[in-house]
Amino acid sequence: MSEWDGKSKGTLLGYKIFVFCIKKLGIKAAYSVLIFVAFYYFLFEKKSNRAMYYYFHDRLGYSFFKAKWCVYKSYFTFGQTIIDKTAISAGLRNKFTYEFDGIELLKDLLAEKRGGVLISAHVGNFEIAEHFFGEIDLDCQINLVTTDMEHSIIKEYLESVTNKSSIKFIIVKEDLSHIFEINSALANNELICFTGDRYFEGTKTISETILGEETQFPAGPFLIASRLKVPVVFVYVMKEPDLHYHLYARVAQVKQRDEKGLLKAYTQSVESILDKYPLQWFNYFDFWGKLKN
After folding, report:
1. Are 238 and 124 in contact (CB under 8 A)?
2. How would you class 128 by CB atoms within 10 Å of its CB: exposed for 0-12, middle for 13-18, buried for 19 or more?
3. Is 167 helix (H, G, I), strand (E, B) or coil?
4. What is the DSSP-derived secondary structure letter of residue 3?
5. 20 to 30 A from 274, CA-CA: which of 14, 70, 209, 238?
């Protein structure tokens, strides 16, 4: 099951080391630190190691040794995305190059002046999407619907060393008041962004198959998106070699009020991305609920 405990990988000390290396040594030199950081996680993070081994071995069908090696490479790649996000936010966007695949869909979406819903996943580096939009002069406001579960100390530290993000956050609340915020944003021709691959204990879920195995997904993003009568676009920002990023945007072709159909389209979309970028699956927990404690 894709139930998450709200804790992301990384420690405050780790982020401080990355920031120091970026400032003093440069981005690619900072990558070299990841050789040791990734090895540390590979040796000592037993739960996430098992979860990622299951993903590579049981879901992607890799051999024992290939799956083990990919667990290490996954940590290394994830570390690169953290360094990149920090560097870009700190004003080093010109060090990176960007490629846009389907961006005309977002332009058309905003031209309709109805707002729109973006659904992404914990693959790639979607948190730098706002810098893509700035690169192509998309004058729009992005609202990320989230729970306030990230580690506050890390958030406060990153905000102190980077430029403040222009993304607005809509916090999911038990009284459902976030629904009014979502409707208000859409009325202003703004973009609403969900991640559709994690849920928290006590939230409503719906099941679907991904990578050949059924699991649970948060119902909220798909229920809301299928009922808002606005365009829905699957969006991913994927890391390529040599400080290059590739943004993918794909319109979801689903029927109104058909959350199951939207979820099915979503899982197929995520699978197509993972087929190209298997190392950039960053759900470091028992996503399918198949691992025994």
Report:
1. yes
2. buried
3. coil
4. B
5. 14
Handedness of CA 75, 77, 78, 80 (dihedral sign): positive
The pLDDT of residue 65 is: 98
Across residues 219-237, what is the average pLDDT?
Answer: 90
8 Å CB contact between 21 and 55: no
* Contact indicator for 169, 146 with CB cutoff of 8 Å: yes
- CA 27 vs. chain centroid, Å, equals 21
Provide the pLDDT for residue 161: 63
Q: 14-17 — which CB contacts under 8 Å span 24+ positions?
A: 15/82, 15/86, 15/154, 15/157, 15/158, 16/157
Axis crossing angle, helix 27-44 with helix 46-54, rounded to the nearest 10: 100
Global model pTM greater than 0.85: yes
Neighbour-count burial of 160, counting CB atoms closer than 10 A to its CB (0-12 exposed, 13-18 middle, 19+ buried): exposed
Q: Are strands 232-240 and 244-251 parallel, antiparallel or unpaired?
A: antiparallel
Collapsed DSSP state (helix, strand, coil) of residue 290: coil
pLDDT in tens, 118-171: 999 999 998 787 777 766 656 677 888 877 655 455 566 666 666 666 677 787
Q: Which has more pLDDT, 285 or 255? A: 285
* pLDDT tens figures, 15-47: 777 778 887 888 988 899 899 989 999 999 999
In the 8-state DSSP scheme, what is residue 60?
S
Per-residue model confidence (pLDDT) at position 241? 93
- DSSP string across 86-127: HHHHTT-GGGSEEEEESHHHHHHHHHTTS-EEEEE-SBTTGG
Amino acid, res. 58: D
CA end-to-end span of the chain: 14
* pLDDT for position 4: 44
Structure confidence at residue 67 (pLDDT):
98
Residue 216 pairs with which residues in a beta bridge? 207
